[in-house]
Specification:
transmembrane helix, membrane, 8 helices, 239 residues, transmembrane, mainly alpha, DUF4760 domain-containing protein, elongated, 2 domains
Length: 239
């Protein structure tokens, strides 16, 4: 405790007060001022970067919306105007993909799909094109203000479109082709690819999976009205 008493005596002495006033307090003031200035500068820089990022994203969204307006009037434009509009749409697509924002690629892919739909539906000033344009504009504005929510919506739409645009399963096509070949080999008749006529509800024989296949249920069935299309479908199975 002696060293603490010596420090207290020195601190309240004339020399201690002079060092405190002339050195310690100015040093602490400089350190505190530097910390405050760094925090203020950091906040200002973050606000400037956020503002610049928002402006860049807004410019890209504006370009996409302009491309959507051109796509909604696609069939009423001249070939030169279409070429110019397509060039602007490609520039907007690249601009969006280069944005360092979550979901930029999703937004670009979603916008490309919607632009293609609006160009197709723009024949005779279709109402569907205007409706798609309205949804297109609202979704892009939502992504501008809420990137994470917009990205989830874009991803959901893209997944749904990918599922809807999937082609027929190759296995199913092979099964249909096999059924057609079996029928042709048995009856020496080609299968007419026409819509299947549903059998009457009073038919006693329950339909098999081949009955619901247009390849396995040809219209050129047995001439016997009592058997109908079911007998023609069952004939290959009996062999």
């Amino acid at each position: 405790m002696q060293w603490w008493n010596d420090f207290v005596d020195w601190f309240y002495s004339e020399d201690g007060q002079r060092i405190l006033v002339s050195a310690v307090i100015p040093f602490l003031a400089i350190v505190v001022a530097g910390i405050v200035a760094a925090l203020i500068g950091r906040g200002a820089t973050r606000r400037l970067v956020a503002q610049r990022d928002h402006e860049t994203r807004a410019a890209a969204v504006t370009a996409l919306i302009s491309a959507g307006q051109n796509a909604a009037r696609w069939h009423s434009q001249s070939p030169a105007a279409r070429e110019h509009a397509e060039h602007l749409a490609n520039d907007a697509d690249v601009m969006v993909r280069l944005l360092p924002i979550a979901g930029a690629n999703y937004a670009a892919d979603w916008a490309s799909h919607q632009l293609a739909d609006m160009r197709v539906n723009s024949v005779s000033f279709s109402y569907q094109a205007d409706q798609t344009l309205s949804e297109y504009r609202e979704r892009l504005v939502l992504w501008l203000h809420k990137p994470n929510k917009g990205r989830k919506l874009f991803a959901a739409d893209l997944e749904r479109w990918r599922y809807e645009e999937q082609g027929t399963d190759p296995v199913i096509l092979e099964q249909q082709q096999w059924a057609e070949n079996q029928y042709t080999a048995t009856t020496d008749q080609k299968v007419p690819h026409e819509p299947l006529i549903e059998p009457a509800e009073s038919t006693a024989v329950s339909p098999t999976p081949l009955d619901t296949d247009r390849y396995a249920s040809p219209l050129a069935a047995s001439a016997d009205p009592a058997t109908g299309p079911v007998a023609a479908a069952d004939e290959p199975e009996s062999r």
